[in-house]
Automatic annotation (TrEMBL), chain A:
Organism: Naumovozyma castellii (Yeast)
One GO cellular component term: cytosol
Key words, A-Z: Ubl conjugation pathway
GO molecular function: guanyl-nucleotide exchange factor activity; small GTPase binding; ubiquitin binding
TM stretches of this protein: none
GO biological process: Golgi to endosome transport; late endosome to vacuole transport via multivesicular body sorting pathway; protein localization to endosome; protein targeting to vacuole; vacuole inheritance
InterPro entries (alphabetical): CUE, DUF5601, UBA-like_sf, VPS9, Vps9-like, Vps9_CUE, VPS9_dom_sf
Domain VPS9 residues, every copy: 171-313
Pfam family, one: DUF5601
Protein name: VPS9 domain-containing protein
Residue ranges constituting the CUE domain according to the UniProt record: 432-475
Region annotation (Disordered) ranges: 1-30, 339-361
UniProtKB/TrEMBL annotation, chain B:
Protein name in UniProt: GTP-binding protein YPT52
One GO term (biological process): Golgi to endosome transport
Main location: membrane
Location of the protein in the cell: Cell membrane
One Pfam family this sequence matches: Ras
The keyword Phosphoprotein appears for this protein: no
Classification via SMART domains: RAB, RAN, RAS, RHO
GO cellular component, one term: cytosol
UniProt-listed SUPFAM superfamilies: P-loop containing nucleoside triphosphate hydrolases (SSF52540)
Organism: Naumovozyma castellii (Yeast)
Length: 475, 216
C-alpha cells in the first residue's frame, strides 16, 4: 500500500509543484469564492455544496481522482477501465464515429454505476462524486483521443478515404470552414455591425479571445476543450462589459464579435473539436452557460459557412470589392508558397489531406506530450499482467494487486525519468504563465506590472477571470 | 428546484436584453445566485403554487439572441429545447411588432404549441406616457393578436422596471402548471428508484465488503 502511494507521487505533478494548473484549463466561471485566499489553496480542497443537485461550482481535480483510483479498494474499477480501453483499441482497427459515441456512452453508464459499489467512491456524493465522474471521462478520452479526434484519426489512417463517414465529414467541414474564413478574413468590424468602442482594445481582445480558443487543440479531455471555448467567450464578454457603447446589448453585440473572432483567429480543426465535444462530453455535465456558449460557437460557425456578400453590411462596395480581390490574390500566393514549402520538406506530410493545419498542429504541443507520458505511466500502472478481463474472485484480486505494485515499481524506475517530466511540466507551466503575463501587459499598458502579476497569481493565470478583474481595476 | 430555458427574441433595438437585465437586477434580493453573462443570464425566483405548502423555486436560464436581420438564421440554435420564449417589440416602433409576429410564426412552426410558452412583450412603456407620448402600437391591436394566437401578453418598461417581474412570474406559474403532473410523476419515480437502488446495493454488499477487508 505505501509503495503504491510512492509510485503515485511520482506521476503526481502536485508533489513538485503546488499550483493546480497542471489541469491548465481549470477555470472558475462565476462567483467562485476564490479571491486572494485561494493563492495557496490546497489542491484537495472541496467546495461546500449548499444544495446537492444544484452545485454550481465547477470543481475538478484530476490528480485527486487518480489518487482515489489507486486505492486498493477501487481495483475492480481499474480493471473494468483497462478492459474497456483494451477492447476499444484491439477489437477493431477503427470504429465509426457513431459506434465510438455509443461505446463510450455505454461504458460510461456502466462504470458510473459501478462507482456506487466500490470505495472510496461508494461513500462519495455531490461534488466529490462529480469529480470522480469527470475524472473518468478525462482518463478514458485521454487514452482514446488519437482514435476519436478526427484530425488524429486521419493521421493514423493516412488518408481521408480510409475514414468512416462521420469522421470524414469532420475533416471536410473543417476544410470548408477554413476556406470560408480565408475568403473573408479581411473584413472590418462594421461589416458585421460591430460597434467599435475602442478599436485598439477591440483588436487586442479579439486576438486574445482567438488564442484562447485555439488552445482547444492542446487538450484531449472534452471538459478541457469546453473550458477553452468558455474562456474565449469570457474574453469577449470582458470587452463588451467595459467598452461596448451599450452595455446591455447582450447577444446583439456578442454574436457578431464572436463571429469576427473566428474570422480573425485562424483556429485549427474547430468543427472537429466541437463534434468531439458533442460526442464524448456527458450531456448532463454541460451546464447552462457552457451550453449557451457552445451553441453560440456552433451558430457562429454556421454563419461563416454560409457567409456571402449579401450577409454583410457594406457601405462602400468599391472598397469592399478591392479588398476582396486583393485577399484572393494573396491567398493564391500563399497557396503557392505552401506548395513549394511542401515539396521542399518532402517528409511527414499527411498525404491527401486538405487540412494540413491540423496535422501540423499535432507537433506543437509539448505539454500534451507530458500529459501523455503521465497517462501512459498511469496506464503502465494499470497494465499489470492479467489472465481475465473481469475481476472474478477475491483471491484473484489480491494476487493481482501485489503483482501490479511490483510491476508498476519496475516501470516507474525504468524507461521514463519521472524527475525530468516533473521539471518539464513545471518549466512549461512557467512559460505559459509568462506568456499570459506578457499578453495581459500588452492589453493593459498603463497598469502596474506587479499588479497584473498579483492578479494572475490570485487567479492562477486563468485568462478569463484575470481579464475580468483587470478590466474592473482599470475602470 | 425547477429549471427552465427561456429564449429572448426580437429586433435589435427593442431592448430585449435590457428587460432581462432589469429582471435580474430587481431580483437580486430574491434568492441566492444569478449569472450575468454577455448574453446568457440565469435567475431564480420563488412562486406560490396551488396545493403546495412550500414555495416553488424556479431557475430561469435566459438565452439572448442577436436581433439583427442578418443573424436571424442563427435563432434555431438558440430556441431548440426552450420552455419559454419572450418575443419583444418596441411600443414606439410599428415595424418591430411585424418582426415580433414573424418570430411567433416561426416558433409555432418549428417548435410547436404545446411545448412552448410564448410571451409577447411590448417594451418602452415609459416613452408612452405624459405629453410626449411616442406610442406607435395600440395596446388593443397587440392584445387582440396575442389572444388570437393564444400568447401571454403585457406591456413593460425595462427602464423603470414596470411590469418586468410579473412577466417572469407568470411564465414561471404557467410552466409550473403545465409541467406539474410531469414533475410530480418524476419525483415519485425517483423516489421509487432510490428505494430500488438501495435494495440493489444491499444485495451486492457482502461481496464488496469482503473485497475491502481483503485488500486493506
Amino acid at each position: 500500500m505505501s509503495s503504491q502511494k510512492e509510485i503515485l507521487k511520482e506521476f503526481d505533478p502536485l508533489s513538485t509543484n503546488n499550483k493546480d494548473n497542471i489541469q491548465l484549463a481549470g477555470y472558475d466561471s462565476k462567483g467562485a469564492p476564490d479571491t486572494i485566499e485561494t493563492v495557496n489553496h490546497l489542491p484537495f480542497q472541496t467546495k461546500e455544496v449548499q444544495d446537492g443537485e444544484e452545485e454550481e461550482e465547477p470543481f475538478f481535480d484530476f490528480q485527486l481522482f487518480v489518487k482515489e483510483l489507486q486505492d486498493n479498494r477501487s481495483e475492480p474499477l481499474v480493471k473494468y477501465i483497462k478492459s474497456f480501453l483494451h477492447n476499444f483499441v484491439t477489437q477493431k482497427s477503427s470504429w465509426t464515429a457513431d459506434e465510438q459515441t455509443k461505446l463510450v456512452a455505454d461504458f460510461r453508464t456502466f462504470i458510473y454505476g459501478k462507482l456506487a459499489l466500490f470505495e472510496p467512491f461508494k461513500s462519495m456524493d455531490g461534488a466529490k462524486l462529480h469529480n470522480a465522474q469527470e475524472g473518468l471521462e478525462k482518463l478514458i478520452m485521454g487514452k482514446l483521443y488519437t482514435r476519436c479526434f478526427s484530425p488524429y484519426l486521419l493521421k493514423r489512417l493516412g488518408s481521408i478515404e480510409n475514414l468512416d463517414d462521420g469522421h470524414r465529414k469532420d475533416i471536410e467541414d473543417d476544410y470548408k470552414l477554413k476556406q470560408k474564413i480565408d475568403e473573408f478574413r479581411f473584413i472590418e468590424p462594421d461589416y458585421l455591425d460591430i460597434s467599435i468602442g475602442n478599436e485598439n482594445k477591440l483588436m487586442k481582445f479579439v486576438k486574445l479571445s482567438g488564442s484562447e480558443l485555439n488552445k482547444i487543440n492542446n487538450f484531449k479531455a472534452p471538459r478541457d476543450k469546453v473550458v477553452c471555448l468558455l474562456n474565449s467567450c469570457k474574453v469577449i464578454f470582458g470587452y463588451l462589459k467595459h467598452y461596448d457603447t451599450d452595455k446591455e446589448n447582450g447577444a446583439d453585440s456578442f454574436i457578431p464579435l464572436l463571429i469576427y473572432t473566428l474570422l480573425k483567429g485562424s483556429i485549427a480543426s474547430l468543427i472537429s473539436n466541437i463534434r468531439y465535444i458533442e460526442r464524448f462530453r456527458l450531456e448532463a455535465f454541460i451546464r447552462g452557460e457552457e451550453e449557451y456558449y457552445i451553441s453560440s460557437i456552433e451558430a457562429a460557425i454556421g454563419f461563416i459557412i454560409n457567409l456571402d456578400v449579401r450577409k454583410l453590411s457594406i457601405k462602400n462596395y468599391q472598397a469592399y470589392n478591392k479588398m476582396y480581390h486583393e485577399n484572393k490574390v494573396k491567398l493564391t500566393e500563399e497557396e503557392h508558397e505552401l506548395k513549394r514549402g511542401r515539396i521542399k520538406s518532402e517528409n511527414d506530410q499527411t498525404s491527401g489531406t486538405p487540412n494540413g493545419n491540423a496535422a501540423m498542429d499535432l507537433k506543437k504541443h509539448p505539454f500534451d506530450e507530458v500529459t501523455n507520458s503521465m497517462f501512459s505511466m498511469i496506464n503502465d500502472f494499470f497494465a499489470a499482467p492479467e489472465q481475465s478481463n473481469q475481476p472474478t474472485t477475491l483471491v484473484d484480486t489480491r494476487t493481482k494487486t501485489s503483482a501490479q505494485v511490483t510491476n508498476a515499481t519496475n516501470n516507474s524506475t525504468t524507461p521514463v525519468d519521472t524527475e525530468d517530466i516533473s521539471h518539464l511540466v513545471q518549466r512549461m507551466e512557467e512559460n505559459e504563465n509568462q506568456e499570459t503575463l506578457d499578453t495581459l501587459q500588452s492589453m493593459f499598458p498603463g497598469m502596474d506590472k506587479e499588479l497584473i502579476e498579483d492578479v494572475c497569481i490570485a487567479k492562477k493565470y486563468r485568462i478569463g477571470p484575470c481579464v475580468d478583474i483587470l478590466l474592473t481595476l482599470s475602470d | 428546484m425547477l429549471q427552465f430555458k427561456l429564449v429572448l427574441l426580437g429586433d435589435s433595438s427593442v431592448g430585449k436584453s435590457s428587460i432581462v437585465h432589469r429582471f435580474v437586477k430587481d431580483s437580486f434580493d430574491e434568492l441566492r445566485e444569478s449569472t450575468i453573462g454577455a448574453a446568457f443570464l440565469s435567475q431564480t425566483i420563488k412562486i406560490k403554487a396551488e396545493e403546495q405548502e412550500e414555495d416553488v423555486v424556479i431557475k430561469f436560464e435566459i438565452w439572448d439572441t442577436a436581433g439583427q436581420e442578418r443573424y436571424k438564421s442563427l435563432a434555431p440554435m438558440y430556441y431548440r429545447n426552450a420552455n419559454a420564449a419572450l418575443v419583444v417589440y418596441d411600443l414606439t416602433q410599428k415595424d418591430s411588432l411585424v418582426k415580433a409576429r414573424s418570430w411567433v410564426e416561426e416558433l409555432k412552426n418549428k417548435v410547436g404549441d404545446e411545448d412552448l410558452v410564448i410571451f409577447l412583450v411590448g417594451n418602452k412603456l415609459d416613452l408612452c406616457e405624459g405629453e410626449e407620448d411616442l406610442r406607435a402600437v395600440d395596446t388593443s391591436e397587440a392584445k387582440a393578436y396575442a389572444e388570437e394566437q393564444n400568447l401571454l401578453f403585457t406591456e413593460v418598461s425595462a427602464k423603470t422596471g414596470q411590469g418586468v417581474k410579473e412577466v417572469f412570474r407568470s411564465i414561471g406559474e404557467k410552466l409550473y402548471a403545465s409541467k406539474k403532473d410531469e414533475i410530480l410523476a418524476k419525483k415519485n419515480r425517483e423516489l421509487g428508484n432510490r428505494v430500488n437502488n438501495s435494495v440493489d446495493i444491499n444485495a451486492q454488499r457482502p461481496s464488496t465488503n469482503d473485497t475491502t477487508t481483503c485488500c486493506s
